[in-house]
Amino acid sequence: MTFLMKALMITNFGGPEVFVQREVEKPTPGKNQVLVKVCASSVNPADCGVRRGLFPPRRELPAIIGFDVSGVIEAVGENVQDYKVGDEVYYAIGHFDNSGAYAEYHVANESIIAKKPVNLSHTQAASVPVAGGTAWTALIDKANIKVGETVLIHGGAGGVGSFAIQIAKAAGAYVYTTCGRYDFDLVKSIGADRAIDYHSENFIDIIMRETHGEGVDVTFSTVAGELLAKSLPVIKFDGRGVTVTGIQGDLNPAIAKNITIHFVHLDNPRPKLEALKTLIERDQINPVIGMTFPLDRVAQAHQKFEERGKDVRGKIVIQVSC
């Protein structure tokens, strides 16, 4: 007997209007795999990029996309060691995986999944894997921030930025962040020591004045454009710059200051999610959820994400089932 599930799929590459709802065959787990009933997912820049066909290799169409998952294991395949039916899990689907989370079920290899933090709902947990894992990779794995260091996080009210602020604070850093003035209360509530309005203030002048000309140890750019290049003047000698976006502008000044530049994408997510689970359960990290949409309104969720109005903070979550 064939069992079906509801899925939101893309049948062409393009804007949010390419999503269509279909009934498709429910997957079954193979060796080392688990079948997860998807409770929630979210919207990430990578989801929009895949939808638009910007990232090679392009998905075979029609395709189910969506990288974040929080859900419950419904079945386990042969050789699964660490999980059982009924376990609540969260994970980030690999970029080269042809399946996605905008569906009622997803099959994943057990090597990429982690136990969901017990103090989070599935809606909250679905916001963590890609954004939280990326922030962890940038600040802990790459920048290797230390207690007492200073960090500048561009875009602190966004998905990755809001996790980055909290990770930096948990690591013992002093945190500067850029955002709109309307988000000052938010970023300060999650740990930012100094918020700078990118609309009306010059972050270089402020940081150099407040650090007595020394600058910060680390900058983290979560916003596209020339922010990494523009941030080089505020990075200390032997400091580090990290970005999750493409490069624009002149990075040659980094050479004279012996600045190390790191380019980041999320890989090997499980240990990062296990570390984040510990901090979340200690209440040191709390996801920022800006909006939620049901699965059948995923197109509107993507449209809202790409508009990025001032009412969009943190993550946009897609509620699937459960």
How would you explain this protein's 3D organization?
It is a single chain. By secondary structure, the chain is α/β, with parallel strands linked by helices. Helices cover 26% and strands 29% of the residues. The chain has helices at 45-51, 122-125, 129-142, 159-170, 184-189, 203-210, 227-231, 253-256, 269-281, 298-307; strands at 4-10, 19-25, 33-43, 63-64, 68-76, 88-92, 105-109, 113-115, 150-154, 174-179, 194-197, 216-221, 235-243, 260-263, 289-294, 315-319. The relative contact order is 0.16.
Considering DSSP H and I runs of 4 or more, what fraction of the residues is helical? Answer: 25-40%
* CATH architecture name of the largest domain: Alpha-Beta Complex
Contiguous helical run count: 10
Compressed to H and E, one letter per element, the order equals EEEHEEEEEHHEHEHEHEHEHEHEHE
- The geometry reads as globular
Whole-number average pLDDT? 95
Which CATH class of the largest domain is shown? Answer: Alpha Beta
Low-confidence stretches: none
Q: Which structural class do you get from the secondary structure elements?
A: alpha/beta
CATH topology of the largest domain: Quinone Oxidoreductase, Chain A, domain 1
Total domains: 2
Characteristic key phrases:
322 residues; 16 strands; 7-stranded mixed β-sheet; alpha/beta; single chain; Quinone Oxidoreductase, Chain A, domain 1; globular
Provide a compact summary of the structure.
The protein has helices at residues 45-51, 122-125, 129-142, 159-170, 184-189, 203-210, 227-231, 253-256, 269-281, 298-307; strands at residues 4-10, 19-25, 33-43, 63-64, 68-76, 88-92, 105-109, 113-115, 150-154, 174-179, 194-197, 216-221, 235-243, 260-263, 289-294, 315-319. The protein is an alpha/beta fold and 322 residues long.
